[in-house]
Known about the structure:
Helix content: 40-55%
Distance between the termini: 16 Å
Largest sheet: 5 strands, parallel
Number of strands: 7
CATH superfamily: HAD superfamily/HAD-like
Strand content: 15-25%
Radius of gyration: 16 Å
Amino acid sequence: MRAVAFFDVDGTLVPGISSAVYLGGYLGHQEAVAEAEAAWDAGLMDPRSVEELDARGWAGTSEAQIREWLEDIPLVDGIAEVVEWCHAHEVVPALATLAWRPVGEFLCSRFGFVEASGPTLEVRDGIYTGISLTGSDEFKKRDFARDFANNHGLTLSGCAAIGDSLSDLPLFAEVGLAIGFNATQKARALAHTNHTGPDLRAILPAFEAWLGS
């Protein structure tokens, strides 16, 4: 293994909308989730409150139903090819994300990411209760990535991160290669390289150059 590549989900692999807002369209609280996420971005609401608000909307929904809805989640092009490239070049692809665990698990199963972070929802008999069992903040991604890298005999300086926004900044500050993909101004400023567009394969030249350096 040469490195770990940590991919963000919302705003990076899922473009234009967060996975929570997407699922909120089915769960019936899309507008409330979108407003809460905007308030967090503006510093007007803490992430735990956003998480709890969203979690309540999951109450009474089955794991199977969420999985079915995720089959149609909007995604950028090129994810499968980038994950395949990682495996072929001894780079471990993982998801460092604040998206709910079911979202990360779905993407791992579909594309071959090896692990995903993300908050956990309580489930009883296959049904979500509406209770969030874990909290989230912008440091959770970095902490997950650091532990994951250490378990694979690496430091974050030997890893890459691909992300777009506020919650990626602590991880961007510590990895050897930070790639902004359709990133906000703050994330672009901290990234080593930036790419925009609908296809994740745009990041591969930067990856190749970094691995070869």
